[in-house]
Design brief:
By secondary structure, the protein is of the alpha+beta class. Helix content is 15%, strand content 34%. It has a seven-stranded antiparallel beta sheet with strand order 4-3-2-1-5-6-7.
């Protein structure tokens, strides 16, 4: 999770708008279609082992991706992704839009699960094990519908 107040103070590069949906989503695998302003991708993910999972991503024609989203995927997730370098690592910070507006999540890719890294002050709670934050789950159980504590 990301502290909204501290995140607003971070100097950010231009973000990338993502629109994505799922053609297949179950506990053992997902198939995602993702469209940006310039590119489109199909991504296949396997079952999670700890906080990691196998992933294969391929570029596809944007027109095909849009058609796949429209014909086979509803509802969808929209977000702006920022890539921020901090402590020698690349952080991807997603500001969600539409039904998930108000949710900001940061992610870091590590070579190994137990790899050490420096955490920015704007990164707060660890949510890797909380399936509510999986984008596939956010598409069907949006953040705005969660009970506030």
């Amino acid at each position: 999770m990301v502290d909204h107040r501290l995140w607003k103070q971070v100097k950010k590069p231009a973000g990338t708008h993502y629109r994505q949906g799922y053609l297949l989503d179950d506990k053992k695998r997902t198939v995602r279609i993702r469209v940006t302003d310039k590119q489109a991708y199909i991504t296949l993910k396997g079952a999670a082992k700890g906080i990691s999972r196998p992933e294969f991503e391929y570029k596809i024609p944007k027109a095909d991706a849009v058609e796949l989203l429209e014909a086979f995927s509803a509802p969808q997730v929209e977000k702006i992704r920022y890539r921020i370098r901090y402590g020698g690592k690349l952080w991807e910070v997603d500001e969600f839009k539409s039904a998930n507006a108000g949710l900001i999540v940061a992610e870091i890719e590590l070579k190994e699960e137990n790899e050490t890294f420096k955490k920015p002050a704007w990164v707060t709670d660890e949510v890797s094990d909380d399936q509510r934050y999986y984008n596939s789950n956010l598409s069907i159980h949006p953040f705005k519908t969660w009970q506030k504590k």
